[in-house]
């Protein structure tokens, strides 16, 4: 269990309140959260939950399988290089066939190396994105906006309780709640959007092959999930 999953367990109630407030009361006109809601196609709590569901493990497992296959291909290629050539006219034909097969195995190995590197990049991008969202989630969990949403208080300007937490007056204030939800939503959705943008750019690019190789898109359909949907 990484930091994001651990924090999500303890902040699921806050995230539910953020989503509920945005659905019920919306956000201030012109607030940056509106653009992020359209871009990600999800409410803040749903976006964080979706990122948690996009696990690193399947890509690591696929990388391990690719590394095993690469090792086998490289071993066969080395064995082909050690095969003794025949003599005479048949030997020339054998040598030509051996060289052709050796080149094919080397090209296969190059594609596998590119796939391994590609999966390493995906794992790094997803791991970095999850870590960044986790840090933001920890920050907003202890924010004044979280206090407004959890205990239903509106902050009083200039009134600060011990520890730096904004004090408030009891009672449900829709305006304060909407502003607090929008502020938290903006912070979380901005990080989720950054993470998804980096991952989607890698998926669109695919593995980087040598100049003389044709680009072959990696089959990651079974291990990837998109969070972007039309509102």
How many E strands?
2
Computed over alpha carbons, the radius of gyration is: 27 Å
Helix content: 55-70%
* Overall geometric form: rod-shaped
Give a structural overview.
A hairpin with a 5-residue loop joins strand 1 and strand 2 (166-169). By secondary structure, the protein is mostly helical. It contains 7 helices and 2 strands, in the order H-H-H-H-H-H-E-E-H. It has helices at 3-25, 33-40, 44-53, 57-82, 88-141, 144-151, 174-205, and strands spanning 154-160, 166-169. Helix content is 70%, strand content 5%. Helix 1 (3-25) crosses helix 7 and helix 4 (57-82) packs antiparallel against helix 5. Residues 153-170 and 215-231 have low confidence and may be disordered.
Index terms:
rod-shaped; 231 residues; single chain; two-stranded antiparallel sheet; 7 helices; mainly alpha; disordered C terminus
SSE map:
Blueprint: H1 3-25, H2 33-40, H3 44-53, H4 57-82, H5 88-141, H6 144-151, E1 154-160, E2 166-169, H7 174-205
Antiparallel strand pairs: 1-2
Helix pairs in contact: 1-3, 1-5, 1-7, 2-7, 3-7, 4-5, 5-7, 6-7
């Amino acid at each position: 269990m990484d930091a994001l999953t651990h924090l999500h367990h303890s902040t699921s109630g806050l995230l539910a309140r953020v989503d509920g407030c945005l659905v019920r009361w919306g956000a201030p006109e012109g607030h940056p959260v509106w653009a992020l809601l359209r871009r990600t196609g999800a409410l803040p709590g749903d976006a964080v939950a979706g990122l948690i569901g996009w696990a690193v493990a399947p890509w690591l497992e696929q990388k391990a399988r690719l590394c095993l296959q690469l090792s086998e291909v490289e071993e066969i290629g080395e064995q082909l290089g050690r095969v003794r050539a025949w003599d005479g006219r048949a030997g020339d034909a054998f040598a030509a066939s051996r060289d052709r097969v050796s080149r094919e195995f080397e090209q296969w190995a190059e594609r596998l190396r590119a796939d391994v590197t590609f999966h390493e990049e995906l794992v790094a991008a997803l791991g970095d994105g999850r870590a960044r969202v986790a840090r933001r989630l920890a920050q907003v969990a202890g924010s004044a906006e979280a206090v407004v949403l959890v205990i239903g208080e509106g902050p009083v300007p200039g009134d600060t309780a011990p520890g730096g937490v904004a004090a408030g007056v009891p009672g449900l204030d829709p305006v304060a709640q909407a502003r607090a939800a929008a502020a938290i939503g903006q912070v979380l959705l901005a990080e989720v959007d950054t993470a998804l943008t980096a991952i989607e750019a890698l998926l669109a690019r695919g593995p980087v092959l040598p100049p003389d190789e044709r680009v072959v898109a990696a089959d990651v359909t079974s291990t990837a999930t998109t969070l972007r949907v039309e509102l």
